[in-house]
Amino acid sequence: METSELLKKVRRIEIKTRGLSRNIFAGQYHSAFKGRGMAFSEVREYQYGDDIRDIDWNVTARYVRPYVKVFEEERELTVMLLIDVSGSRDFGSVNVMKKEIITEIAATLAFSAIQNNDKIGVVFFSDKIEKFIPPQKGKKHILYIIRELIDFQPEEKQTNIAQALKYLTNAIKKRCTAFLISDFIDKDGFKDALTIANRKHDVVAIQVYDRRETELPSVGLMKIKDAETGRERWIDSSSAHVRTAYKEWWDRRQAAMSDSFKKCRVDSVSIRTEDDYVKALIALFDKRN
């Protein structure tokens, strides 16, 4: 992409997403994620209404009455964006491709983080770690992230979400809030890696998908291509059996993904490319309050 065209796109994304994070979310981001980064302060005797998960069992055993740990909210959080840049993001059947929605969501979250005085970093991943941008603050840093979101060209096309989660667990030592933004088209499982990552960090999953991925139209013979492997095949979309089998595959896949998020205690939201992602993010934030 030419530099002048890239700068225009960066500016458009900046104007739109900065306005959304400033005017629409207006503190919802902070209230949804405050307290996720906590520093130990002291212990005190248990009081009615305290969370039993905060009980300090060593002190409790020493004094033979319950004591709880007191935490103070850290002044700044570290926010990581785990961005899927595999081949399947280059798809869209309406007016926009998945990668464009991913870019806008990521940019909106980045501006929200900066306005909350948080650091923001990015991991671009396919079936390997394509690029790591360490967490920093500042508008210059945000604009660099947006530029990379728009113009980054991955070396590989396939997906390995587990690899990205393992990298997050190992690379980021301090507890962070991590937004995993992907279509979650991954042939390998990532449940174990997600469980481990969410124990150390606060992981939030955001799925971006297209409606044509959920069901096939009845348009006769279709030549389809796997964007990640390059394999091609012909299917007869006029066959009710073919369309039903495809729909059932999608439903099973979504159910398995949702079950993984639930068992790993990971908050999640699914956003269709043609839908209002702002409403979806607000609903996600409200669910966490």
UniProtKB/TrEMBL annotation:
DUF58 domain boundaries: 42-252
Database matches in Gene3D superfamilies: von Willebrand factor, type A domain
Stored InterPro entries: DUF58, vWFA_dom_sf
Coiled coil: none
Name this polypeptide is given: DUF58 domain-containing protein
